[in-house]
Every structure is written in structure tokens, then in C-alpha cells.
Amino acid sequence: MDIGCNGGDLTLELVQRFRPRSLVGVDIDKTLVKAAVRALARRRAALREAYREAGRLFKSSTSQRPLPPPPPAAVTEAEARAGELAGRATGVTGEASPDEEGGARAAVGAGRAEKAGGLAPGKAGTPGRPLGDRAVRLQRKGLQAELQALRGVRFEVANFLDWGGGRAGEFHAVTCLSVVKWVHINWGDAGLRALLARVADLLAPGGVLVLEPQPWTSYAAAFRKQDMAACEGVHLPQSLKLRPDDIGPELERLGLACVPGGCTPADAAAPGTPANFQRPLLVYQKPLGSAPGGGGGG
Ligand SMILES: C[S@@+](CC[C@H](N)C(=O)[O-])C[C@H]1O[C@@H](n2cnc3c(N)ncnc32)[C@H](O)[C@@H]1O
Questions:
Q1: Residue closest by Cα to atom 8 of ligand 1
Q2: Which among 173, 165, 184 has a CA at the least distance from the CA of 235?
Q3: C-alpha dihedral, 265 to 235 to 293 to 296, nearest 10°
Q4: Is domain 2-48+151-285 annotated with CATH 3.40.50.150?
Q5: Does residue 110 have a pLDDT over 90?
Q6: How far is the CA of 7 from the centre of ligand 1 (A)?
Q7: Using a 6 Å cutoff on CB, does residue 6 contact ligand 1?
Q8: Are 105 and 114 in contact (CB under 8 A)?
Q9: What pLDDT, on the 0 to 100 scale, is given for residue 54?
Q10: What pLDDT sits at residue 231?
Q11: Cβ–Cβ contacts within 10 Å for residue 239, how many?
């Protein structure tokens, strides 16, 4: 799940990269959730179009190029070598011609040609296909897999602290990026503790939390920039006892363990990363042996 999903950018990126079986994005802001739903629809439409386009490509590439004769049922090394020599003699080889993107023109000695990036193996008696077609098929498979994963995505409007949509131990991964500061400021130390406890409860054994603890200096900046001091119920930084550095120990008290090498400071970002994307990350895991809902420390 993605807590504080905003307009769905991160959520959809997660789908593209990891293809989860299901994924829920929750955000307190209705307008942003509507934007996320629209972004999901756009992504679906773009993938469907890409899928159709890949299909057209596939058809035109197979109809324009004559298929090579079916490869023999089994090609021995010797036959393959002989075929390759014959190919050289006739000028027909398994090498791709420069004008065919990744495609080999013909096959003499299919096994050898496939190793060279030429033909797919092809069952006995069926024509091998040029690699271009193979690439298109792979591309379509990838698009189909992402489309399938998108079917499992939903967005919900909720204050995560009151969200009733998840069961204890249900989630294998939770992301919470650039959110804890807002919860901390709006609901105080108790709100931050409640968020962490809820995440620990929702994680399945072996499940992972990726959380961005916003730096303490950014709390004061939030008040300066957004005139928050005037908002009713907000917690001024000086009234808060917890600090971003307390989040890790708090998660450990809840029974989660820091993933070695997973927690990275902001300055570990790749060189050239824009300043506003140099964000510290904490990666914690619920130990495999723990009870589905229970955090260690309660
Ligand atoms: C700075 S944005 C971060 C968006 C996204 N996670 C990212 O890293 O790009 C913070 C988001 O958290 C949401 N948010 C703040 N408090 C929340 C709460 N209690 N429950 C759910 N969402 C919340 C805000 O509406 C906002 O969309």
C-alpha cells in the first residue's frame, strides 16, 4: 500500500516496476485521489494503445517478411555448422542485416542462429520467427502484465489514522514517503506513534516498510511557508517531543527490524539527483516469524 499517495505518481511507478497483485493508495485529500484515479485511467489507456500498436507491428513484420523454411526437428552442432557454412556460400546467414532492427533474415542452422540472436527456436515443423517479432511479443507480454497489475490498483480517500480498509498482516510492502511530517504536525506525537503502530499491524510477516522521515528542519519550514500556525489543532514544533530520528527506534519497539543497507541518508542519492529528490529513507521489515498482526512492542 502507498500511504499519502497524492496524485498516484509513486503508486503507478510501483506498479510498473514491481507488478504487485494488488495495491491501494490512500490519501486524505479528495482532489488528489481523483487526480490519481484519472492518472490510473490514462496509464491504462496508454498501455492498451501501446499493446495494440505492438500488435500492428507484429502483423506487419510477419506479413512483409517471408518466413524461413521450417527448421529441422533437431539440429546437431555438426548440422548447424554445415548450415552456417552453406549460408556463407550462398550469402544467406543468420546475421541481422543493418536495415532489419534486430531481425535475422533467414535461418540455415537454426540452433546456431538463435544463439547469435537470430531466430527463436521454433518447434519441429513450425517456422522460426525473426527476432524482431520475438521482441514485439515480449513487449506485448510486458504490457499485458502491467495492465493486469493495474487491475489490482485502487485509490481511497481517507485519513490513514482512521482508515478501516486493511486487515492485520495484509500487506507485503508499505510505502510512506513525505507524509509523516504532516501527520506529526496535524496529530502530534500521538498521531505519529499511531501511524507507525498501524503500519506495523498491517504488515505481513516478512513485509517491508519504506518510509521517508522528513528532516526536523523542514518542520519549521512548513510553518513558515504555509502559514500553518494559524490553523486550528496543529502542533507547533516546540510542542512535539518525538523527532524524525525517533522513528527508527519506535519501529524497532513495534517489532520491526532495520533492513541492513536499506536505510539511507539523503546524501546517499545518486550524483546529479535534484536537491528536492535527495530524500532519506528508512527500510524496515517485519520479521518472518512474527504473528501476522502483532508488532513486538505493541
Ligand atoms: C508531500 S505529499 C507526498 C506524496 C507522495 N507520497 C510522494 O512522496 O511523492 C504528502 C501527501 O500525504 C497526504 N497526507 C497527509 N496526511 C495524511 C493522512 N493523515 N492520511 C492520508 N494521507 C495524508 C497529503 O494529502 C499529500 O498528498
A1: 177
A2: 184
A3: 70
A4: yes
A5: no
A6: 9
A7: yes
A8: no
A9: 84
A10: 78
A11: 9
108 pLDDT exceeds 60? no
Strand 203-211: give its sheet, edge to edge.
153-157, 23-27, 2-3, 171-176, 203-211, 282-285, 257-258
Q: What angle do CA 19, 283, 276 make, to 5 degrees?
A: 85
Lowest mean pLDDT among 59-63, 105-109, 126-130: 105-109
Ligand 1 centroid–CA 296 distance in Å is 27
85, 112 contact by CB (below 8 A) = no
In the chain, domain spans:
2-48+151-285, 68-128
**Residue 144 pLDDT grade (very low, low, confident, very high; cuts 50, 70, 90):** very high
Distance from Cα 180 to the centre of ligand 1, integer Å? 8
Is the CB of 182 inside a 6 Å radius of any atom of ligand 1?
yes
Contact assessment for residue 113 and residue 120, using Cβ atoms and an 8 Å cutoff = no
pLDDT value at position 64? 57
Q: Please state the separation of Cα 243 from the chain's center in Å.
A: 30
Residue owning the nearest CA to atom 27 of ligand 1 = 6
